[in-house]
Amino acid sequence: MIRLPKFTRRSAMLSLMLSALAAPALVPASPVAAQAARSSDLASVSTAVRGITTLSGDFTQTDRNGQVQNGKLLWKQPGKIRFDYGAGDLLIVADGSSLYMIDYQVAQVQRWPIRNSPLGALLDPKRDITRYGKIVDTGDPRVVSVEVRDPQHPEYGVITLIFTRKAGVPGGLSLYGWVALDAQGNRTNIRLSNLKYGAPIADSAFRWRDPRGTRGPR
Question: Strand, coil or helix: what is 112?
């Protein structure tokens, strides 16, 4: 069983910062209508994730200790993502098959398969959100939340994706952020902002310099 690595300086996995959104008074729906709405939202979430070709923007990360960090996000399907932290000493990159965490301050590199992390729900094209996802009631019709976990592989962790309804983006849902919980119980919150969909991103953006000095750029 592969367990997610833990860094000494930071929580190893990423996740999402939830913001409070005012919820209007709602009339309870019938069980049948509620189930239909959940099924429709789950299909929309799958469309939203699979419909992303590229995505760029800013992120704010809050780890389990309350430490807040900011940075830039680049995402290109299938399976590529890059989190550049503002200080420049930490980088998280997925190159289509593996997810790397590179700590330039201590010259340390961690690697594990994308599918073995909570981010697999976003990056692994074989992960079917409609099969592994469950809509979570937010109390606000403008916000859609889905919890994704593989019951056969609890070591993969859990990710809760948060979307806001927005016309003109895949599935009519804009990714607001997520909360990731790894197999060791480490929780990290990610909130996204200033998102841009569909802009060209070169594959070279997902290469990185190995800080250990034994290898060149990857």
Answer: strand
Query: Sheet containing 108-113: which strands, arranged edge to edge?
Result: 108-113, 98-103, 90-95, 80-85, 68-76, 54-62, 187-197, 173-181, 158-165, 143-148, 133-136
Contact 162, 178 (CB under 8 A): yes
**Domains in the chain: ranges and CATH:** 31-196 (2.50.20.10)
Q: Checking phi first, is residue 89 left (phi over 0); if not, alpha (psi -120 to 50) or beta?
A: alpha
Phi-psi category of 44—alpha, beta or left, where left has phi over 0 and alpha has psi -120 to 50?
alpha
In angstroms, how far is the first alpha carbon of the chain from the final one? 26
Query: Distance (Å, rounded) from C-alpha 72 to C-alpha 202?
Result: 15
Preceding peptide of 154 cis, ω within 30°: no
Element (H, E) at 158: strand 158-165
What are 206's two structure tokens?
Answer: 């997902």
Largest Cα span, the chain: 62
Q: Is residue 127 within 8 Å of residue 120, measured between CB atoms? A: yes
pLDDT 10s digits, 180-218: 988 788 899 999 999 999 999 999 999 999 998 765 556
Q: What is the DSSP letter of 33?
A: H
pLDDT 10s digits, 73-100: 999 999 999 999 988 889 999 998 899 9
